[in-house]
Amino acid sequence: MKVFTKGLFKENPVFAIALGLCPALAVTSMVWNAIGMGFGVIFVLVCSNLMISLLRNFIPDEVHIPAYIVVIASFVTIVELLMKAYLPSLAASLGIFIPLIVVNCVILGRAEAFASKNTPLDSVLDGLGMGIGFTLALIAIALVREVLGSGQITLFEQGASLIRIKLGPLSDNPIRVFAFPAGALIVMGYFKALFETISKRRK
Amino acid sequence: MNKIVRISIKLLIICVAAALALSVVNALTAPEIKKLEVEAKITALGKLVNNGKADPESEIIVEGNDYVSSYFTINNNGEKLGYILYLKAKGYGGMMTVMASYKLDGELINAVLMNNSETPGFGKKAEKQEYMEKFIGRGSDLKPLPLFSYEVEEDVDTVTGATITFMGVSSVLKNGSDFIKGGLK
Q1: For residue A173, is it within any domain?
Q2: B182 to each of A49, A89, B86, B105, how far by Cα in Å?
Q3: Residue ranges of the domains in chain B?
Q4: Chain A to chain B Cβ contacts (< 8 Å)
Q5: Residues of B in contact with A71 (CB under 8 A)
Q6: Optimal mutation site among A70, A77, A96, interface B, most CBs of chain B within 10 A
């Protein structure tokens, strides 16, 4: 169980290890984007961890990085094709950040540090925990940014279907800086400070 | 030598397995993606024409042109009013597709950014209709299309930090206008 829960808080990829910051800052202008990117990363993390764990005795040490990249890139391409076919609005919204999951340090990091040395079951649990931790971090950043920067919360958007909560006066006069990349850095900084404080108090 | 061959074979097996898995997913998703592209094209054709009509089935493929891949004719009761071009542009995230409608003198009626991999929050803003406003009504000999952001009127909002997208869109719209002025060549 520890293998699963460590990714949620103690070793949270975004707030504790500071990995995968590029998508964490770039796609968090809307909660729905964060949810979509989070689920994409969970799928790729779980599948690549499982596959790399199964192949850990087959992949030669000399070429393990290229082999991992082939496995990860394949799962990312699968996610991209599925999103383009069944969630085209989300695919259009996330754009280049879907193929860039390939170079997300969280995924290669877990493959190298965990899946290549552990059993398939543990690797799946590790991928699931890290993926959920990454998704929760993205949703937290996106929630603050969308509420303050746009005065709304977008929970679902696909074609004509839209679930969006408008937050009264804030939606007419939002604090626009939070919708821009600078706002992402500010929110990330505050979350990191909060995270460090809680971690220190726990110790 | 044996070791290198063994490693190469193992890598080859992984690559072949990955290619097989991807071909299966591609076979399952390709028809759905194609259907969505056709729907997007029909929607764009409707958006691009405010007077007359362009038949989605009357697409004419252009061979050997770096910017124009195909075009449709806009007709109103048999009278030719202009053209809708399918244009290929180069953006920050790679190739982009732009659909643009023009009058017979090369003046832009409207344009829509279709497939693209531009950065969300920056170049991706070119998908919005307001982005194209700065080009609409320009392209004739008297009022040329702006190629650089400083050629746009001051009251028009350009997107900060998305110069490559702007250059890609503006140059391809100009090339489309020149294609029509040159007698579709």
Answers
A1: yes
A2: 57, 37, 16, 10
A3: 46-181
A4: 75
A5: 14, 18
A6: A96
In chain A, residues 84-103 whose CB comes closer than 8 Å to chain B:
84-86, 88, 92-97, 99
**Helical pair B2-48 and A64-86, crossing angle rounded to 10 deg:** 20
CB contact set of B10 (below 8 Å; sequence gap of 6+): A58, A59, A60, A63, A67
Cβ pair B174, B167 in contact under 8 A: no
pLDDT in tens, B25-73: 999 999 999 999 888 888 888 888 888 888 877 888 998 888 999 999 9
Per-residue pLDDT tens digits for A79-117: 999 999 999 888 887 888 898 898 888 899 999 999 999
Contact at CB, A73 and B18, closer than 8 angstroms:
yes
What SS3 class is residue A137?
Answer: helix
Task: Report which residue type is found at A184.
Answer: A
Q: Nearest CA to CA, how far is A201 from chain B (Å)? A: 37
- The tokens describing A121, both together, are 């079951």
**Spatial separation of the C-alpha atoms in residues A135 and A28, rounded to whole Å:** 11
C-beta separation of A67 from A49 below 8 A: no
Fill in the amino acid letter for B175: N
Are the CB atoms for B147 and B123 separated by under 8 Å?
Answer: no
Tell the burial category of A42 from Cβ atoms under 10 Å away from its Cβ (0-12, 13-18, 19+).
buried
Interface predicted TM-score (ipTM): 0.81
How high is the mean pLDDT of chain A?
90
